[in-house]
Amino acid sequence: MLDLRWIRSEPEAFDRALERRGMEPASVQLLALDERRRAAQTAFQEVQSRRKELSKAIGNAKSKGEDAADLMAEVESLKDKAAAAEMDEKAAADEIDAMLAGFPNVLAEDVPDGPDEGANVELRRVGEPRAFDFKPRDHVALGQGLGGMDFERAAKLSGARFVVLQREVARLHRALADFMLDLHTEEFGYTETIPPVLVRDSAMFGTGQLPKFAEDSFRTTDDFWLVPTAEVSLTNLVAEEILPETALPVRVTAHTPCFRSEAGSAGRDTRGMIRQHQFEKVELVSITTPDQSADEHERMTSCAEEVLKRLELPYRVMVLASGDTGFGARKTYDLEVWLPGQNAYREISSCSNCGDFQARRMNARFRPKEGKGTAFVHTLNGSGLAVGRTLIALLENYQNADGSITVPETLRPYMRGKERIGGGN
């Protein structure tokens, strides 16, 4: 949610922020509504003030035995004027709230301008893609060859964009999640959390999924939402709270299922596990003061990168362009892992600094150590990592000519010492 006071004081900057997102200017329309709301508020206050004057005059007239009929008639007429002003103020306020809820976050100045992902900027590459002496298979062929990836039975149960994982592939998936959680909690200071994955409207609104992106998520018949990411649950832990500055930064992590309708992605990544309705992710969320958030963004990204480094998976770091940055983010880094089966880098994590955008929607504040009053916190989120996509990357990068998979040394303690799964396929 954007600050209306900022829009009043800097309408041109607001319109420029929308233009960077590919949107039309909106300051004139919004400020006209704001002027209407304030005019109605003033009219209501004037009516109320006049009613108080009249009430006092009626009391004086009656105490003197004078006729107060005209005064009482004016009081009666003011009731309708007060109701009309109150209704007009509420209608304008509702329109303003609806407009503000639909505006994306203001991008950081150093975010590159560009209409789509083609304008994203590569910051660095880590690791070299493996040179195979055989034609590498993709994760679908590898998973099915290991007897651990079944799309047909998943489709029988649930339809397209689902998978059943079994045997050593399922165990490898679990090992990855456990490794990620251990790394983030034991080395990076995140607090392990098991949050609800069913949330109310207010939680989805707080992190920006509602109202604009309702079609991207699944809703139950009794009005709960299945979280598209644990960011929703973890960030909303501080909703409607005022934290002491000494409690910040808050760093939490969770391994949860995530659910996305993938509206608008028809025909994209229909093969395999790249884009599913149900998947698992280890999420990272930080709550900070405004002056901490830029450094925290770099720190969070490095924590996610460390997972890939420990697994020795080649990847690159991209800063997203204005047209590719998510609705709630000021700035986003994407980590893209190398997939030999696609001969391409694919996203495996997004780490975003949301500034105070989500905090305003959640009314999440902190009380500074010095000075009076409160201020909005800053919120950050990132994948540390998407477990299914990491599984895909591991299968494809660690495959052998016979269809077996070498288990990275980092994961062997989580696989009871196994160095390889499958073989002879």
Structure description:
This protein is α+β, with helices and mostly antiparallel strands. The protein folds into two domains: 99 residues, Helix Hairpins; 305 residues, 2-Layer Sandwich (BirA Bifunctional Protein, domain 2), CATH 3.30.930. It is built from twelve helices and 18 strands. An eight-stranded mixed sheet has the order 1-11-12-13-16-10-9-4. A hairpin with a 7-residue loop joins strand 14 and strand 15. Helix 7 packs across helix 12. The mean pLDDT is 95.
Mean pLDDT: 95
- The total of beta strands comes to 18
Question: What is the CATH superfamily label of the largest domain?
Answer: Bira Bifunctional Protein, Domain 2
CATH topology of the largest domain: BirA Bifunctional Protein, domain 2
Alpha carbon gap, first and last residue: 54 Å
Strand order of the largest sheet: 1-11-12-13-16-10-9-4
Low-confidence stretches: none
Overall body shape: elongated
Q: Which structural class is indicated by helix and strand composition?
A: alpha+beta
SSE order, as H and E? Answer: HHHHEHEHEHEEHEEHEEEHEEEHEEEHEE
Helices and strands, with pairings:
Layout: H1 4-9, H2 11-20, H3 27-63, H4 69-102, E1 121-126, H5 139-145, E2 149-150, H6 151-158, E3 164-165, H7 167-187, E4 191-192, E5 198-199, H8 201-206, E6 218-219, E7 225-226, H9 231-235, E8 242-244, E9 250-259, E10 278-288, H10 293-311, E11 315-319, E12 331-339, E13 344-353, H11 357-362, E14 365-367, E15 375-376, E16 378-386, H12 387-397, E17 405-406, E18 420-421
Parallel strand pairs: 4-9, 8-14
Antiparallel strand pairs: 1-11, 2-3, 5-7, 6-7, 9-10, 10-16, 11-12, 12-13, 13-16, 14-15, 17-18
